[in-house]
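Human: Respectfully, please carefully check these tokens:
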Amino acid sequence: MPISTASVSTTTSAVYTSGSNTAITFCSICNYGAGNITANVYVVPNGGSVSNTNIILKSLEITAADTYQLYAGGEKLLLSTGDTLQVDVSANSSASVVTSYTTI
């Protein structure tokens, strides 16, 4: 399964864009910074934009040097071509996202 990695910032941006019908099999947000942060995670349909209608985690607190696993084990998030997983955090230069996915 391929992986996608991205640094995230206070500006909401796509950390994964589906190139076809895919399933996200693992996703984590790592706070490598010295202080606590909060994260927002959105699943945005192709052609859509970030809004309260597609937020899946709001103000998730991640303590310093900790990692939150969004998808692990048997869970999957199914995406169509052009759908995106987008993330923002409360502090720049403090977090990264790792996503593993497979084509379905």
